[in-house]
Amino acid sequence: MTALIAGLAAPVLAQPVADRLDEADRVLPSVIREERVVMPTSERAADPVSPGLTGGNPWDHTAGPPARLPEGTFLLDRPGRLIQAPADRTVFVPDIDARLPGEGPMLALPNAALDRLETSTAGASPPVRVSGEVFVYNGRRYLMVSSFAVGPAPSPPTEAPPEKPTDEGDEQDTEPTVESLTEDPEVRGLLEELEAEAPTPARIERGTPPPPGATETGPGQTAPAPDGTPVFRRRGRLTRSTDGAWLFVFDNDTDDRLASAALTLMPCRLLERIELEAQTRGDSAEVALSGRVYVHRGRAYLLPTMMTRVRVADIVPMR
User: Fold this and answer.
1) Rounded to 5 degrees, what angle do the CA atoms 208, 214, 216 make?
2) Residues 205-309, CATH architecture
3) At CA 16, angle to CA 12 and CA 17, rounded to 5?
């Protein structure tokens, strides 16, 4: 059998390579291909998408100011100063020379770190360096301070210290004051907005008090939970405080201290969705929130991180 197969294959292998290729072309079906030559274009048909602070434009694009910092941006060791704003709020103003693209004055969110920072500065405006996360609510930027240091940044060591001018006519380096910081158009515009939003007696009278059984925390009171306490899918309802802020009142189906407190919701992108939910569904807007509790000057706040709708159960009691 092996000898038979070898005898049949010998004539095929003995054929020249060119003859075998010609025979393969005759046996195999021919495919007609029309190749089209594509010449390179002289101009790009489209620019690639470049997401970032400049909205897809090159960094040297000067058509307008860069976009503001998005929510979730973490600032590390940013130099700046603090300004006391209307309604007893604090504004962090980054140094102009060290600002990032799109960085500007930001309202400091209340927490224990801000409490310690305000105590360290004692109402003055010394240079500070803060780290924290940026949040956005209705186009306004907020800064959640996580760590800070009071004083200017340490300068790198040099071989010889610079000589200080001794003549009275020489120019001396002057530190920026609150008046000089408010000359910044962005700072002045933010302070004017906060001044217009400051609560008046008429606005306070129109406020809605917390529901019965829930007390609003405030100065001089003990917070229902320490700063940084996590909250996971707690059910409750939304209401307004006397100064117009949104409050979250927990369902009193548990015996913890949070069930008897109304926490102020902190501004962020998620609060915009929560606010729309409350305005759409009204008093029946029962939601489940997850987040973290923060405490500032004895008042408790809740930074929401996740919201879940709670469906109304159509239960008819038996008679």
Assistant:
1) 65
2) Beta Barrel (2.40)
3) 95
Predicted confidence (pLDDT) per residue in 175-188, tens digit: 666 667 777 788 88
Distance of CA 109 to CAs 133, 162, 178, Å?
Answer: 10, 40, 20
Candidates 207, 265, 194, 269; CA nearest to 236 is 265
Domain 74-152+177-197 has CATH 2.60.40: no
What pTM did the predictor assign? 0.66
Please count the CA atoms within 13 angstroms of the CA of 166 that sit on its side-chain side.
1
Greatest mean pLDDT among 95-99, 159-163, 199-203, 233-237 lies in 233-237
Token pair in block for residue 239: 């209401």
Beta carbons of 157 and 168 less than 8 angstroms apart: no
Provide the pLDDT for residue 213: 47
pLDDT at 291 > cutoff 60: yes
Contacts of 135 by beta carbon, 8 Å cutoff, 6+ apart: 71, 109, 141, 142, 143, 144, 266, 267, 268, 269
Instruction: Give span(s): CATH 2.40.50, the chain.
Output: 74-152+177-197, 205-309
Four-CA torsion 114, 115, 119, 123, nearest 10 degrees: 70
Q: E strands within the chain? A: 74-85, 89-94, 106-108, 128-137, 140-150, 215-216, 230-240, 246-250, 261-265, 286-296, 299-309
How does the average pLDDT of the chain come out, rounded? 75
Query: Would you state the structure tokens that stand for residue 120, as one six-digit string?
Result: 């360290």
At residue 11, does pLDDT exceed 60? no
* Greater pLDDT, 187 or 92: 92
| Other beta carbons within 10 Å of 130 | 25
- Give me 96's structure tokens: 């102009």
Quote the CA–CA distance of 159 and 152 in Å, as a whole number. 20
